[in-house]
Amino acid sequence: MPRRALAEQRPYLLLSLTAALAFYYLRWTAMPEAYLIPVKGAGVALLALYAFMRHSSPDARLLTWALGAACLGDMALEFDHRIGGMLFFLFHVLAMGVFLRNRRPELKGLDSWVAGLTLILTPVIAWMLPTDREAAWEVGFYALALGGMAASAWASNFPRYRVGAGAMLFLASDLLIFAEMGPLQGHFLPQYMVWPTYYLGMFLITTGVIQTLRKRDPELRVVK
User: Fold this and answer.
1) 103 strand-pairing partners
2) Which of 6, 166, 184, 191 has a beta carbon 3.0–4.6 Å from 201's, enabling a disulfide?
3) Is the pLDDT of residue 133 over 90?
4) What global pTM score does this model have?
5) What is the DSSP letter of 223?
6) Domain residue spans in the chain?
């Protein structure tokens, strides 16, 4: 990787990490919630900018749109969970598009089991977690897309230790949110773990996809 390209592009990831850490710690302070919303959104927004700047392939553009939806979802969740949920549903659909366009020719053994069980069990488990049965149906419907995203990421030809693992971290983060609506209500675990697992998952997905695309086609979009 050319030194100039590295020097120009790495700051987007660094700024994204800084924004994610800032949100995690500042939310425990007395800072007004209105000021925290853009800080929260900046973490994934900068990942979207990284994806846009690093590659101009259709897959990279589709990932950029997906990350844009997730960024808006992060902010929308702070004032309306349904709107935020719809935006994340859109993220999952768009991300699935990236993964399905790059699926492995064949899944064998344990990999096929992991993808299949992720697809089937995610909505079932998500539906079982909330104590409010009306909310459970909404959660279960959303989790159809969540499970599809994670399963297709695992079945894609992107590196599993990055993209596949990142999708599974995202899945775990959402399941913690759903568990907070039921067995983990009032428990400290979701409060401390949802954001780190979600953001780390998004970071791994983004860098894993983009760096793989660059290895396949090293062209670089340069903005002058």
Assistant:
1) 156
2) 166
3) no
4) 0.91
5) -
6) 3-216
